[in-house]
Amino acid sequence: MHFPVSLQAGLWGLLAGAALVLGAAIAWFANVPQRAIAGVTAFGAGVLISALAFELMDDAYERGGFGATAAGFLSGAIVYTVANWMLARHGAKHRKRSQGKQPSEEEDPGSGMAIAVGALLDGIPESIVIGLSLLSGGVVSFVAVIAIFLSNIPEGLSSAAGMKKAGRSAVYVFGVWSAIALASAGASWAGYAVFRDFSPNIVAGTTAVAAGAILAMLADTMIPEAFEQAHDAAGLITVAGFLASFALSKLGQ
Predict the structure, then answer these.
(1) Residue 1 confidence (pLDDT)
(2) Which of 47, 119, 139, 150 is the most exposed place for a label (fewest CB within 10 A)?
(3) How does DSSP assign 171-208, residue by residue?
(4) In the structure, what pLDDT confidence band is assigned to residue 165 with cuts at 50, 70 and 90?
């Protein structure tokens, strides 16, 4: 059965987003040591750094040149940073922390919604990239899907562990991550359906926007979480994740 390309985009986004639910389930049902969570987070950060360097930025540059790529990259980082700063003021600062730093609803009313919105903010740029990758001949970038899937597991794992320690219910935790998985599907669909008729410069700029937002997210949330517990091993584990994603990108050529 041949699915329309836009539907394929949504399904690939759903697959990548489902890794968030998988990570949350591991955190909820298993007693994962803090250093293990930090190590998985560091690995996921390395995977994403490699993917945005060798997949996203390279693709954006080939489509639209340096100007569109640079403008999009900086814009994505700025938009993410401003949005992240606003959410942090409402209790979402430590949404990816697993060590009990997330506030409970009693400690900071409204923080639950801010954390959910923050998690959505973190996941949407990655998902749009999947849809954009289908613009090149209707074939998805398997490297991007695998990289995002691998990085989503530690994101869901670390954040859900923090939600559990903050006293949030299973309904809240799995509701948040299931909703974001569905939103990831929608974002991937939009990445293809909305941008398929746009000029290469706009597609390039959008890809670079996503890359800038992802890198800002890594620096603001995932890397601090990884370093706090993994300490000296965080760099080595991040390098291992980078190398794994780099190998996938070369094997896929």
Answers:
(1) 53
(2) 139
(3) HHHHHHHHHHHHHHHHHHHHHHHTTTTS-HHHHHHHHH
(4) confident
Supply φ then ψ for residue 7, to 5 degrees. -70, -40
Torsion-angle region of 100 (φ positive above 0: left; ψ -120 to 50: alpha; else: beta): left
Q: Which of 142, 172, 150 lies closest to 222, judged by CA?
A: 150
Q: Round to whole Å and give the CA distance between 157 and 155.
A: 5
Helical segments of the chain, H only: 5-29, 34-51, 57-87, 111-133, 142-165, 170-193, 200-217, 223-230, 233-251
- Residue 84: is its pLDDT beyond 90? no
Q: What is the DSSP string of 63-87?
A: HHHHHHHHHHHHHHHHHHHHHHHHH
Mean pLDDT value across residues 190-205: 88
Task: Report the b/e string of 230-246 with b at 16+ CB within 10 A.
Answer: beeebeebbeebbebbb
Kindly state the DSSP code that residue 252 receives in the 8-state scheme: T
